[in-house]
Amino acid sequence: MGDSKSLLDLVEESDEFERCPDCGRYFARAGNHRCETDERKQRQNPPSRDERTRRAREDDRQDDTLVGLFCPSGGNTYAYHDLANGKPRCGCHHHADADELEVVSLARAKARGRAPCGSCRRIRVSRRTESSTR
Q1: In DSSP terms, which residues pair with 69 in a beta bridge?
Q2: Contact 102, 80 (CB under 8 A)
Q3: In a domain, 28, yes or no
Q4: Which residue in 14, 23, 99, 134 has the fewest CB atoms around it within 10 Å?
Q5: Spatial CB neighbours of 83, under 8 Å, sequence gap ≥ 6
Q6: Which residues span the domain enclosing 103?
Q7: How does pLDDT run across 67-81, given as a tens digit for each residue?
């Protein structure tokens, strides 16, 4: 029993779990994690224009990268989404009111004052980190 590891040690060593860079919580790689505090803040107060501008400026992908926008009646009107097979990578299309996603270039989304979706960004960062450790 003296050689047993703590649960935290096992989680940190496992390839099945990942640590959120924003809140520090661990989550199963197969799941779609959202920081509880970020989600609560978003529902109460969407990011300010300055915050959206900062987030968009930090997205260093090519301007011609295709992203998706929901129309203003779809709820989330400040974010652009990474696409996977024509759908938002984060899966938010399952919960959105809008049934159509407008596909535009990243440059166009930024020019329209949109910022990256937090969930899509976390998935992208996670995959980048995953591929760089292989």
Answers
A1: 102
A2: no
A3: yes
A4: 134
A5: 66, 67, 68, 89, 103
A6: 7-132
A7: 999 876 545 578 899
